[in-house]
Amino acid sequence: MQEHELSLFKNWFYSHAAGCRSNDSEMNAVLDLKIKHTDFVCSNALRISQGLGWPEEQTRAAQIAALLHDVGRFPQMTGFQTFNDNLSCDHAALGVEIILTGGLLQNLTGKEQRQILSAVAWHNKRILPQELPKDEQSILRLVRDADKLDIMRIFCEYYAICRKRPNPLLEFGLPLSGKCSEKVIADLTSGRIADLADARNVNDVRLIKLSWIYDLHYPMSRALFLENKYIEKTLAALPPLPEVVRLGVQLTDYLKKNI
Ligand SMILES: [Fe+2]
User: Fold this and answer.
1) How far away, in angstroms, is 91 Cα from ligand 1 center?
2) 64 alpha carbon to ligand 1 midpoint, in Å?
3) FRET partner for 191 with CA separation of 20 to 30 A, picked from 5, 6, 131, 256?
């Protein structure tokens, strides 16, 4: 695949996003956030794949997968006014449908098509299938890492202003204060990825996002997590309880030992 082909995908992506715009300025602002998110996920994906020394072709497939991973988000938001898959539709499955219906990947090799479609389909799933071919797994894991890193950026930027300008979209409709749940603390302490279903308040959600550290696959992703100070920024938005401070130290140590 040539460089100019990547820009064709970018052109398609921006016109797909533009096609979902309307006269609703609030909705347009949300869609703009998704465009910005995709841009950052693409640059994270590029940085991680270059750090891994991937060949150009594999890097390019990872970039296309990163670019297309959230295409389902745009019609999801305009159709259902939510990013909550449980209340609307599986945005990853919708993304695959959009890609296939549009024949977007028809000029790529069969291998590239498989890699990109499985990365889009599985990027939002909590449990991944064991039987995915290795070449699909490596691209999928990279997109998941790049995606998580940018979701952390979005939330950490929000934490800095959330008291003045709370955004219900980023609070999951949960109480804005409350004790951190023992189950969530126990999961993080034991090195487990915590489940959003266990969140009782926004503090739990913040901790659960930190547990994604255990789901990062590549050392470069962990290095970027450290470099961007996502642990410190999250802790600043949590009550300074001894167990929370201890977790911050534990998670930082884990990242440092695994980069
Ligand atoms: Fe995403």
Assistant:
1) 10
2) 13
3) 131
Q: Cα of 147 to ligand 1 centre, how many Å?
A: 5
Q: pLDDT tens digit string along 72-106?
A: 999 999 999 888 898 899 999 999 999 999 999 99
For residue 29, the CA-to-ligand 1 centroid distance in Å is: 16
Give residue 241 CA to ligand 1 midpoint distance, Å.
31
Structural domains of the chain in order of their starting residue, each with its CATH number: 3-149 (1.10.3210.10), 173-257 (no CATH)
Q: How confident is the model at residue 167 (pLDDT cuts 50, 70, 90)?
A: confident
Largest CA distance in the chain: 56
Burial status of residue 167 (CB atoms within 10 A of its CB: 0-12, 13-18, 19 or more) = exposed
Contact 218, 142 (CB under 8 A): yes
- The CA 209 to ligand 1 mean position distance, Å, reads 14
Residue at token pair 């020394």: 53
Find out whether 142 and 217 touch, Cβ atoms under 8 Å.
yes
- C-beta contacts of 248-252 below 8 A and 24+ residues apart: 250/188, 250/189, 251/188, 251/210, 251/213, 252/226
What pTM, to 2 d.p., does this model score?
0.93
- Packing angle of the helix pair 242-257, 182-189 (nearest 10 deg): 30
Please tell me the distance between residue 199's alpha carbon and the centre of ligand 1 in angstroms: 21
